[in-house]
């Protein structure tokens, strides 16, 4: 096995043909790794035993690697598989300190579930894991996303969360606050993987954008799509609500790459200043 070492900056790779998510080489971020000449067949890429999205950019094959929040700072490796054999490519991950957030939840069972609640949560987890294991082979993946909701940026990805002073899992997505009933739009072309009503997530939709790029929409009031439905960018998924574990109406938006939760803000970097500015009004 051949091994190469790439030292990647945390700056975005320039995109000439396709608008890519912003690169940020930290836990919870995305790394762009060149993996071959696009004149050759598209390689298969694996990171931590999961397939990685590969796209064509500037006459090269580029792997978009989602980095888990619990990834160790320092070198990480991907495996590139081609007809000529396997190659290991290393890249560097820098540290990022995520701030803490303290929330007061009135429904105490949403913080300390009962035995019956735990059974439902376990059942929910199995359904969600099936949705997130989706892999659709397709030559091109649209990564030029629009914000799914026209609202106010209310909670960032990766926050260390405390509910009623109890430590819980880090915030796994991006929260956009909006009035109940505000339309939620597909950020890019996709297929509906599944919909459901879950204990913590409330009314939920999962979309498949191809090659393991999956997006999730939580706490909805209405769901207006069905599993298997093909969507175009801007099609309505449903409406903002406050179902599940919430403190008020908002959309909790998750994005997954190679079965890893990553920061959705990297997909709508040009829109973040506008959404955040509404906090000052």
From TrEMBL:
Record InterPro entries: Cell_wall_metabolism_enzyme, Dup_hybrid_motif, M23ase_b-sheet_dom, Peptidase_M23_N
Signal peptide: 1-17
Residues of the M23ase beta-sheet core domain: 170-264
Keyword field: Signal
One Pfam family, short name: Peptidase_M23_N
Record keyword Signal present: yes
Gene Ontology molecular function, alphabetical: metalloendopeptidase activity
Domain Peptidase family M23 N-terminal intervals: 25-96
The organism's place on the tree of life at top rank: Bacteria
Name of this chain's protein: Membrane protein-like metalloendopeptidase
